[in-house]
User: Which sequence fits this backbone?
């Protein structure tokens, strides 16, 4: 009997009625002859609400306790779904991440999956049960509950599919993967397929339709991943290896990310020790730097800009104060209303001219850009957030996304 892993995200299980609809889809698949494993997220905005509660207690709560708390959302959904299936006459069992054999590292709130002991899931499948697994969570070597990072239920699903050697279907609130976020550009076109490599790049740049590590695992273990609307009725998008049937576009996707801020340190003495000192301090506090730019030296001084997650703002401010004690001349500006937009496409390996087209769009539409970085299949730009919609719609039109 074939096995299928399906994953249902927060909006797909937001109410009891929606959980009942998911149960019917699982039954349909079971009746069609598959062994079914369903991975579920927390209902609706449960995880956000749990995190909000902690903010009333502490600005920086213990990460172990945070994991104890936020892992509960998925457990609620999994037990409710298993109960619904039983009520409809189908044998089912819900499992926590640990019970499903998800073993993780111990970095709380962003733990990597190290291994999956699949025996218990396989046993229940052999008994004919529909197995429901609480996504987003696992257990570390100390026996503590961990979570995998926001959006981590996708990763749970692909890891289980890799171990069960079967495809993974991810059901969500959009019809599949689009050329750009349909929530920002409603005319975006749905893709029939996309390569692992392009999707990994898009996910890591902020297309939250699937979590980056889920795509990485899919690529590593060659798990066919299919993303579609949670009614299961319309054709979605396949994530797979590049093959001859796929048309290589110059640009496949455009991503938008508002999660970073930009720090500019003016009047830095142009010497490598001072510059090293700045970035060393940031790294010692685990600040994840993304884009970096530097002006040409004028009278021995440069201005350095970098982007980092908005959630690190308070630590950055502390570090800036420390830096000012030794570097009296520096002036620091932190800008939060910036957006990173990136174009991604395998075709950029062989075709030039993408950057020029985007610079023309910026020039024609009066869009100021602050930083540009490139990789083999990506170009990213930092712009002012006020220009976000204008930039997205013009780039999407130019590249037919
Ligand atoms: P789930 O709760 O099912 O995990 P998410 O909210 O994590 O769903 O992901 C789905 C959302 O991803 C969509 O509502 C959409 O706004 C957003 N999104 C961002 N980029 C894209 C894209 N390129 N294609 C489709 N959806 C995208
Ligand atoms: N509930 C978790 C989150 O909101 C995990 C997930 O939905 O995949 O991030
Ligand atoms: Mg998600």
Assistant:
């Amino acid at each position: 009997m074939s096995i299928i892993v399906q994953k249902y995200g927060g909006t797909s299980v937001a109410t009891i009625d929606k959980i009942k609809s998911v149960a019917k889809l699982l039954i349909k698949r079971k009746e069609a002859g598959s062994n079914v494993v369903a991975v579920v997220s927390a209902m609706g905005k449960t995880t956000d609400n749990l995190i909000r509660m902690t903010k009333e207690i502490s600005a920086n709560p213990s990460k172990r306790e945070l994991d104890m708390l936020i892992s509960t959302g998925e457990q609620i959904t999994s037990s409710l779904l298993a109960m619904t299936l039983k009520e409809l006459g189908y044998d089912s069992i819900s499992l926590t991440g640990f019970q499903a054999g998800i073993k993780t590292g111990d970095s709380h709130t962003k733990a990597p999956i190290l291994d999956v002991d699949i025996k218990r899931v396989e046993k229940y499948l052999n008994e004919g049960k529909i197995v429901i697994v609480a996504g987003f969570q696992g257990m570390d070597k100390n026996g503590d509950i961990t979570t995998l990072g926001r959006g981590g239920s996708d990763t749970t699903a692909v890891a289980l599919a890799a171990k069960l050697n079967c495809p993974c279907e991810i059901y969500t609130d959009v019809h599949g993967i689009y050329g750009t976020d349909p929530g920002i550009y409603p005319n975006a076109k749905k893709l029939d397929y996309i390569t692992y490599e392009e999707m990994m790049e898009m996910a890591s740049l902020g297309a939250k339709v699937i979590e980056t590590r889920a795509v990485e695992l899919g690529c590593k273990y060659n798990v066919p991943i299919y993303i579609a609307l949670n009614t299961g009725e319309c054709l979605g998008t396949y994530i797979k290896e590049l093959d001859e049937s796929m048309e290589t576009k110059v640009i496949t996707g455009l991503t938008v990310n508002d999660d970073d801020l930009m720090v500019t340190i003016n009047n830095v003495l142009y010497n490598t020790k001072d510059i090293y000192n700045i970035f060393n301090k940031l790294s010692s506090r685990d600040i994840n730097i993304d884009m970096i730019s530097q002006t040409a030296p004028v009278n021995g001084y440069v201005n350095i800009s970098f982007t980092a997650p908005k959630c690190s703002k308070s630590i950055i401010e502390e570090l800036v104060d420390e830096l000012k004690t030794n570097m009296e001349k520096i002036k620091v500006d932190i800008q939060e209303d910036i957006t990173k937009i990136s174009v991604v496409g395998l075709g950029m390996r062989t075709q030039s001219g993408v950057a020029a087209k985007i610079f023309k769009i910026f020039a024609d539409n009066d869009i100021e850009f602050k930083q540009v970085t490139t990789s083999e299949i990506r170009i990213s730009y930092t712009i002012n957030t006020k220009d976000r919609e204008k930039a997205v719609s013009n780039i999407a039109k130019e590249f037919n996304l």
Q: What stands out?
A: The first strand starts at residue 2 and ends at 8. The radius of gyration is 23 Å. The pocket of magnesium ion (ligand 3) is lined by residues 9, 151, 154, 208 (CB under 6 Å). The chain is about 35% helix and 25% strand.
